[in-house]
Amino acid sequence: MHNENGWIFGVTDFLTSAQMRAIEQAAIESGAVSGAELMDRAGRGAVEMVFATWPDLAEAPAIAFVLCGPGNNGGDGYVMARLLRAQGWHVRIAQFGPDEPVTPDARMNFHKAQVAGCAVAQISGQLALEIFAQAGSVLVIDALFGTGVTRALPPELRALSHLLEDGAQKARRDVAWAAPRFMAVDLPSGLCADTGQVLGEPEGGRAFMADLTVTFHGLKHGHVRASGPALCGLVRVVDIGLWPWDELRHGV
């Protein structure tokens, strides 16, 4: 069911990561839409959903920490960073991986975010302290890894997820403290899109947690299975114009 903004609610036909890849690839190969256009739609839709979920964030510029991985999930994050910066937000991009993204579309949006005035640095051990040291409204965007990742988070990201979760719990116990809002692009990094299991468990796997998860085209199995509901928080789906190719899911 669609509302006037193109968002989808009440979806029960879940997608696997392979089905989502097939649908996206078919759309791009058709020539009707480019990968860059899909990335822009995803980032824009995610920002709109953030504001719909937390209207106070739309009323005045706030602070965003955008955690970006090396691939297209990070590319969605760069789009969000640029759009928030255009609305007057103070935006800090924290990269994981090489200094530039590895995919062309993500690389293009990385440079656009830089031109827009977003501050860029590599993820460091001090990031959690910087996030919780901010005054005012803070949004933390997890755009590290998307639906195609099958490996456990590397140690430095497992440590960061622990620090962020611990800090958020402490902040919420302090009535004088405004806890950051945590949002995940597609699904929290470290969560398997197909099973809802935390990647790497039981040998020490870990995943990020989100208050809001914004995914695209349709819900994934991982949003509703196993650890998914506890880690994803509120899940919302954004329509990015892939419905003409949706029937391809049945052949994957």
- Tally of separate domains: 1
Ranges where pLDDT stays below 50 over 5 or more residues in a row are: 1-11
Per the principal axes of the C-alpha atoms, what is the gross shape? Answer: globular
Binned strand content: 15-25%
Please name the fourth-level CATH homologous superfamily. YjeF N-terminal domain
Succession of helices and strands:
EHHHEHEHEHEHEEHHE
Helix/strand-derived category reads: alpha/beta
Look at the structure and give the CATH class. Answer: Alpha Beta
Helix content class: 25-40%
Instruction: For the record, give the distance between the C-alpha atoms at the N and C termini, rounded to a whole number.
Output: 24 Å
- Please name the CATH topology: Rossmann fold
**Quaternary arrangement of the chains shown?**
single chain
- Main beta sheet, described? 8 strands, mixed
Cα-based radius of gyration, to the nearest Å: 17 Å
- CATH architecture group name: 3-Layer(aba) Sandwich
